[in-house]
Design a protein that fits this description.
This protein is mainly beta. Helices cover 12% and strands 46% of the residues. Strand 4 (112-121) and strand 5 (124-133) form a beta hairpin. It is flat and about 70 Å long. The relative contact order is 0.12.
């Protein structure tokens, strides 16, 4: 492996150097060379999709051709941790053919989380079943699918969160709920404060719903059925640091 032949570059000279290349070492959940249970480790690694190198590169705040900046390297490491898909992140410098290289090493955390619940009280049964995947196909995007049954209603919830929707820094959050008494959708898209030096953040959010509500003027016990009332809302938020 080429990385094994790299040597650590003297830190005192880094600020005068230009980053020639970025090496990404993305590891699966378990290191099979360790003493972890063999069958479980192999099964977990087979089921899990390792975070893609391109996803890791997009989260960085440094690029090949940039002057080495220790502050931005530290910010890049924090940005990777804020994706919440890694159990370990480490960045260091090396030399490759006499040129400065930045090495990014990550180890994935387990990202697939089944959602199960059941309770019964006074003859009423409540249960839920679903799945939360925080690193869908190694893209650091989250997908939520949960079905919830209660004595009053049934709710199917579908959610999606992408930290790099159609752009390197644009974040998208979407949540849709289909209920027995209506539907509702919420969304947010924008650019957050992705580093401490960022001066501005911009987000646009909205909501659309069609839910059954008690009609105006209806009295408790009257024969008037609940009305289905559509609602919509949108807003823009701009923050300055």
């Amino acid at each position: 492996m080429a990385v094994a032949f790299l040597s650590v570059y003297p830190a005192i000279r880094l600020s005068a150097q230009t980053i020639d290349t970025i090496i990404v070492v993305n590891r699966n959940v378990f290191n099979l060379a360790d003493d972890a249970p063999g069958f479980l480790a192999h099964a977990a690694n087979a089921l899990h999709v390792t975070t893609r190198a391109g996803v890791i590169r997009r989260a960085l705040l440094v690029n090949p051709g940039d002057r080495y900046d220790s502050a931005r390297v530290a910010e890049s490491e924090r940005a990777l941790r804020s994706l919440y898909v890694f159990s370990r992140v480490r960045m260091d410098t090396t030399r490759l053919d006499g040129r400065l290289a930045l090495r990014v090493a990550t180890t994935d955390g387990w990202s697939t989380k089944p959602q199960l619940g059941y309770s019964a009280a006074g003859g009423d049964v409540t249960w839920l079943a679903g799945l939360v995947e925080d690193n869908l196909l190694g893209t650091a995007t989250s997908l939520i699918a949960v079905y919830n049954h209660t004595p009053d209603r049934n709710i199917f919830t579908l959610g999606y969160v992408s930290p790099h929707f159609f752009s390197r820094r644009v974040r998208l959050q979407a949540l849709y709920s289909a209920k027995t008494d209506g539907k509702r959708g919420d969304w947010l898209v924008g650019v957050p404060f992705y580093e401490t030096a960022a001066r501005h953040a911009l987000s646009i959010d909205g909501q659309a719903a069609s839910e059954r509500v008690l009609a105006s003027g209806a009295r408790c016990g009257s024969a008037s059925p609940p009305a289905s009332r559509p609602t919509r809302r949108a807003g823009t938020t701009c923050d300055s640091g």
